[in-house]
Amino acid sequence: MTENKVNLAFKEQKGRCLIANQNVSQGDILLVSKPYAIVPSITKKNDICANCICISKHQTHPREMLVCRKPCHHVFYCSNKCEQQHWDKFHQYECSFLDKVCALQDHDYVINYTLLFMRMLTQRLHDILDKSSTVSSADVWTMLSHFDEFTEEKKNEFVTVAKILTEYILVKLIPHLIKDNHEFIVSIQSFLPDHTDAKKVEINNSDQWLSQMVHLCLLFNDDTTIEV
Q: What GO annotations for molecular function exist for this entry (predicted)?
C-alpha cells in the first residue's frame, strides 16, 4: 500500500477507532499490522509451523511434521525451507534454551509469554545487527505497564523469568555483538529500554545467581572484567 486509507481517531462512545478517509470497496486492504515477534502457543506447537505460523497440512499426522535439525522437539515445520529460514534467523540462538524455558512451570501461560519475550530479544539482536524487519522495537516499550497492579506472587514469577532471559542474553546473544571488552556494557544496554520512565525491578537474594552470570560472562573472554 502506498497510502493510508484510515485515520486513527477517538470517539466518545467508542474510544480509539479507525475511520476510513476515502471510499473503500469490498476486498480492499485497509490495514496491515505486523507483530514485532510471534511464536506458536506451546499447546499447538505440534500443529503449527514455527516459521510461517501456518497450520500444517500434516496436522492430523504430527509425526510427519519436520523437526529441528538437533532435534530439540520443541519446534516443528511444514517444510525444509521453513526449517532453514527459522534456524538462520531465530532457532540457532534459541534451540538449546528451550528445555529450560519449557521446564519453568506447569502453566502454559508462563511458558508462552517467556517464549515470546525470548523471541523479542532475538529479534532485537537482528535490529542491532541491522537485520531487522520493518517493525521497530520502540513500539514494544510504548505499551502500558501494569506492574504496580501485580501481586507479590506474580512479581516473583517475573523474577524467575527475568533471570532466565538475562542468562539467554548473556550466553546466546551478547557473544554475537562484542568484539572487545569495551563493547560488553554497550551491548547489554542495547537490550534495555531507553525511556527515562522505565521501571527498574530489584531482584532480591540473587547473589549466587549473579555470580553464575558473571562466570558465564568471563567464559566469553578471559580478559573481561566485570564490576558488581
A: histone deacetylase binding; methyltransferase activity; zinc ion binding
